[in-house]
Design a protein that fits this description.
single chain, 447 residues, mainly alpha, Helix Hairpins, two-stranded parallel ribbon, rod-shaped, binds zinc ion
């Protein structure tokens, strides 16, 4: 194709990866000075301002592959232009107008885009690494798949911004008003989101690992399936927000505001085997991570004067420990936790202890008349001894209670090996359950 281009024409051919609806072009502009390409396509740094200022751009101008690196671009307008795969590396582009332009696949590496107008710009797959976009207009822009790592985004307008699957690692978003933006599957690892105000964000699958959200106003936001591991939520306001399946391992909570509508879900992401956690969890058990998270959520609810929920998270934490012991084959510890679960609901439920106590007394009271009976010394009370059933049961209930509480008056004693063994077991169970009662009561009074 280029063979047929006259010598005084540029002949730049657009990139092969262009979407079909754009259509490829061959640049027919006159060559620039002594070069063999036009002004836009000549491979040269620091192009002069006067050439740029005199450039007449039509609506929808095709500037694919334009080379404007290390140039000081005057505040001209590239509005509506096609700048696919253009090179703006290290250029000064402050106040330049890119509104409605197509700058997909272009590189702005290290460029200065302060106060630039990128409203409704299509910047998919673009590279903004280390750029300053401070004060830029990003309303309605599409920066999906773009590299926005280490970018300064302070004071930008972001309403309707799309940054799906974009890389914003270490980016500076301090104090930003993030509203109505689509940020699914984006990464914000180590990014600064302090003092941000979030509303109506779509964040599913976003990654905030190690990010700072200090003092962020993130109430009424859906953070489900977001990763906050190692992130800081110090002084963040997350009232009415949704954190179902959010990853919180090693997250820092302190003075974080929650309310009863803050939804942390019924389980953690760590207990769901269908959720892929990556390689980090080969050494650490998922249950250890879950227990860690529940411990923090317990503290968080206590700080926010929600002791009922705090108790619930204590129980879930102990359950995670129990599952952890089972998965590691530490069956004795598992047994102790299991016993504690059913007897006291991990030290939280007096009702459990009382139910077990009453149940033991009643069961034994019913069992003694069948297991050999009880005797005063003169008379034996057992099924078939001729005593009325009501009186038999009441005596047996009295004996069972005295045995359970280990009072041992000695006015009745068990008859035969079965009744004796049962009485021994009942007094042992009684001693244990009374001790547990005191323990659980003590825990609750201490709070
Ligand atoms: Zn050209």
């Amino acid at each position: 194709m280029s063979e047929r281009v006259p010598e005084d024409r540029c002949g730049y051919v657009s990139a092969e990866d262009l979407p079909e609806d754009l259509g490829g072009v061959c640049c027919w502009r006159s060559i620039w000075k002594n070069n063999n390409k036009c002004f836009w396509h000549t491979e040269k740094e620091s192009k002069s301002c006067t050439e740029l200022q005199n450039a007449q751009l039509n609506k929808g101008e095709r500037l694919d592959g334009a080379i404007l690196k290390k140039s000081a671009i005057p505040p001209i307008s590239f509005a509506d232009a096609i700048l696919w795969d253009a090179d703006f590396k290290s250029s000064t582009l402050s106040n330049v107008n890119f509104s409605n332009a197509n700058i997909c696949n272009s590189s702005f590496l290290g460029a200065d885009l302060r106060e630039a107008d990128l409203s409704n710009t299509s910047a998919v797959n673009a590279d903004f690494w280390h750029c300053s976009l401070r004060g830029a207009d990003l309303i309605g822009a599409d920066m999906s798949n773009s590299r926005l790592a280490n970018v300064d985004l302070r004071d930008t307008d972001t309403i309707g911004l799309t940054i799906e699957k974009a890389n914003l690692n270490e980016a500076n978003l301090k104090g930003l008003m993030l509203s109505n933006a689509l940020m699914t599957k984006s990464t914000f690892a180590g990014a600064n989101l302090s003092d941000t105000q979030m509303s109506q964000l779509y964040l599913k699958g976003a990654d905030f690992e190690g990010a700072t959200l200090k003092n962020a106003k993130a109430s009424n936001t859906n953070f489900s399936q977001v990763n906050f591991e190692d992130a800081s939520l110090v002084q963040a306001d997350i009232r009415d927000s949704n954190f179902k399946n959010t990853r919180f391992y090693q997250t820092l909570f302190s003075d974080t505001r929650i309310n009863s509508n803050t939804d942390f879900g019924d389980t953690t992401a760590y207990e769901d085997p269908d959720i892929d956690l990556g390689e980090n969890y080969e050494d650490t058990s998922r249950f250890e991570a879950a227990a860690w998270v529940y411990r923090r959520l317990q503290d968080l609810h206590e700080e926010n004067a929600m002791s009922e929920q705090a108790r619930e998270y204590h129980v879930r934490k102990e359950e995670a420990h129990r599952s952890n012991y089972w998965s590691k084959g530490q069956y004795f510890q598992w047994f102790v936790y299991t016993l504690n679960r059913y007897l006291t609901r991990h030290g939280e439920s007096l009702k459990h202890v009382v139910t077990w106590s009453v149940g033991t007394i009643l069961t034994c009271a019913l069992a003694y008349p069948f297991a050999g009976g009880i005797s005063t010394g003169n008379e034996v009370f057992r099924v078939g001894s001729g005593a009325a059933l009501g009186g038999l049961f009441l005596r047996s209930l009295y004996f069972s209670t005295v045995t359970f509480t280990t009072l041992g008056y000695g006015d009745y004693h068990p008859v035969g090996p079965a009744a004796k063994a049962l009485a021994g077991a009942e007094s042992l169970a009684g001693a244990l359950l009374v001790a547990l009662f005191v323990f659980v009561l003590g825990r609750r009074v201490a709070r």
